[in-house]
Specification:
Blueprint lengths: L1 E7 L2 E6 L9 E5 L10 E8 L2 H9 L18 E2 L3 E9 L13 E4 L2 E2 L5 H4 L10 E2 L12 E5 L3 E3 L6 H4 L2 H12 L8 E5 L3 H12 L4 E5 L3 H10 L3 E3 L6 H8 L5 E6 L4 H10 E9 L12 H4 L4 E4 L5 H13 L8 E6 L3 H11 L6 E5 L5
Parallel strand pairs: 3-4, 12-13, 12-15, 13-14, 15-16, 16-17, 18-19
Antiparallel strand pairs: 1-2, 1-5, 3-10, 4-6, 4-10, 4-19, 6-7, 7-11, 8-9
Helix pairs in contact: 4-5, 4-10, 7-8
């Protein structure tokens, strides 16, 4: 089968690889690229290109293992694609989930975890000490014609939810996990730092939870427009206005109840801390590539809380899919481009690098249909 294989910095190849077997506890999905785990098998349909994929292309390997991964046993080259939907192609002999059947459209939670470390035993498998992600850390990936994944990480899509939206469940689950960690109510004043794909997903999830007074700080004009369309009540341009001062004006001098830093740059974390109210909550959503200066007094003088979140858990996937079913989450506008697998690098990854302000989510169509 064909798969998008990551070999290293600026080296992604579409090539032929063996189709993965379907292990006894796995589901095999049919997509249009490669994968090889040991559970049910799925054929991928649509795969989102993530900021993590861009970082791997520009400066990796980072998440992609340059030596044998302790859980998957794989190392580069590995198949990419961790934001994906697909169709169940094969079901392992020991799979107990009776609701799974061949031909069912689904989304996949790509978490890889050991189940044995202190984090996993504490119910925080998303923070597994040796964990990773299908589509980054080995074990196959969505950018292939088939992938085998653990049965308990396969989530059927409700009737009427297209496979394109199924590929958005992963980034929406990142946002849902972040928003669920924040003490928000419908009356909360919330500041989102950054209007990129995750920041916009956070806006959508806040709206789904009933929050209306959402402020987004973003410098790019196109992303400001997206944020407004997705439900932000106020747009703050940090190039023009001081974020803290604007938040104080909007909130009557109180500050934001919650701030979520999705931008991941030194100025954004400082602004998030300075704009939060006394005893408010700052949530770090971003993944940082290097250390930055951080002054604890930013939160100390407000007696505010600084909290970090990482990826998602099963409950987040379930909540996102349920909110897609009810219509509380309406993420279709996140999809700004769809491309075939052969265009992955030129019109997918490179487009997101050179034209990132005008793109939210680029989906790779791997060719599977119902």
């Amino acid at each position: 089968m064909r798969a998008a294989r990551y070999y290293g910095k600026e080296d992604i190849r579409i090539e032929q690889v063996p189709e993965p077997p379907c292990g006894p506890n796995q589901i095999k999905l049919r997509l249009d690229t490669d994968t090889h785990f040991a559970f049910p098998q799925i054929a991928p349909a649509f795969v989102g290109i993530c900021g993590t994929d861009l970082h791997e292309y520009l400066g990796g390997p980072n998440f992609c293992p340059s030596s044998r991964h302790p859980i998957t046993g794989d190392q580069i080259p590995v198949t990419l694609g961790h934001e994906f939907s697909g169709i169940i192609k094969e079901i392992g002999s020991d799979v107990k989930q009776e609701h799974l059947r061949i031909g069912l459209p689904c989304a996949v939670q790509p978490t890889i975890y050991c189940g044995k470390c202190a984090a996993c035993k504490a119910g925080a498998e998303n923070a597994c000490h040796t964990g990773g992600f299908i589509g980054l850390s080995g074990g196959g990936g969505g950018l292939s014609e088939a992938v085998s994944v653990p049965a308990d990480q396969v989530f059927p899509l409700p009737e009427g939810i297209p496979l394109e939206l199924g590929a958005l469940v992963e980034p929406l689950s990142v946002a849902w996990h972040a928003v669920s960690a924040a003490p928000v109510t419908s009356e909360s004043n919330v500041l989102v730092m950054g209007g990129g794909p995750i920041g916009l997903a956070v806006v959508l999830c806040l709206k789904a939870k009933g929050v209306t007074n959402i402020m987004v700080a973003e410098i790019a004009t196109a992303r400001q427009r997206f944020a407004k369309e997705f439900g932000a009540a106020h747009i703050i341009d940090p190039k023009i206005h001081d974020v803290m001062e604007e938040v104080m004006k909007i909130t009557g001098g109180i500050g934001a109840d919650v701030t979520l830093d999705c931008a991941g740059v030194p100025s954004s974390v400082k602004a998030a801390c300075m704009a939060v109210k006394t005893r408010g909550t700052v949530i770090n959503v971003a993944i940082w590539e290097k250390e930055i200066p951080f002054n604890p007094n930013w939160v100390t003088w407000r007696e505010s809380s600084y909290k970090s979140v990482l990826a998602y858990q099963k409950a987040d996937y379930q909540a996102v899919i349920e909110n897609l079913r009810t219509g509380a989450l309406k993420p279709a506008s996140m999809i700004t481009r769809k491309i075939p697998l052969d265009d992955l690098v030129e019109h997918g990854i490179k487009a997101l690098i050179t034209d990132k302000d005008n793109q939210v989510k680029v989906l790779v169509d791997v060719g599977v249909s119902l």
